[in-house]
Design goal:
The chain is mostly beta strands. The chain contains 3 helices and 12 strands. Strands 2-1-7-8 form a 4-stranded antiparallel β-sheet, with no helix packed on it. The longest helix is centred in the middle third of the chain and has 9 residues.
Length: 224
Amino acid sequence: MSNQLQKAFFKTETNVQIDCMFNPATFAFSAGNTWSDEDVPGKDIPRQRFKGGQSGKFSVSLVFDTTDTGASVTTHTNKLLKLMEVDTTLSDYDATTGNGRPQWVTFNWGEHIHTFEAVIESLNVTFTYFSNEGTPLRANVDVSLKQYLPDPNWTRQNPTSGTPKPHRTHLVHRGDSLDRIAARHYNDSTLWRLIADANGIADPLALEPGAIIVIPERPVRMPT
């Protein structure tokens, strides 16, 4: 049985892959057009004149967690923050004037989500869990991106078409077990193996408090 979604990742302009630790709970994108009013004498409502398309936008909310290693979660969040800085290695960087730009990225998830080239408009990092020494171990990162260049392929496809419903996640607490977690999310403790397979858990009793596991959607019909 294979219910686990492929890991999502960003691919940068310089062909570096930045993996997401956990798949996002949602993926939202938008497209827009610009219209202007054209007054028509004797009419109550003006006619609309098409002025052109707008850049596409999309956003994702990500979770990063390093409670299992104790290392600072900034190891991961800093990779995204770096993408908002001017990159002096790009071919269009002007060393004489110091003019440059950050890299564009694409967001990729499984077979169906491959976005247009986009630049990060905003990035919000919220640290939500710390070690006793004050080291940040868990962070929520909200990323908003805007289309950088026209992409004719994107206008002909819905990037979420056919995409499986994203997994929910569960924060493991002390005393949690897979059958209890299955009972909570499915109202059926016997479905614990579905969670084990989705997370590659070999020992259902070896759950680490503070870990985040995915909760896959319950199949309409369980395999026998």
